[in-house]
Please model this.
Amino acid sequence: MPETPADRIEQALARIEAAATARTHAEQRLRLRHARLRAKVEDALVSMDALLARESAGGDQG
Model:
């Protein structure tokens, strides 16, 4: 039985829905990666700030 235009439309809709779902998952993964990276950078900056404060305080004594 040959495909009808309605069949092709249904197949196209299924592909569009699958692509939209994949994109949503990709965006969620990217947001999670961004949040993790941001947290790591914030931790590193806090550590560097503390180190600079200690070095500054130690330099004032010397």
Q: What stands out?
A: The chain is about 90% helix and 0% strand. The mean pLDDT is 93.
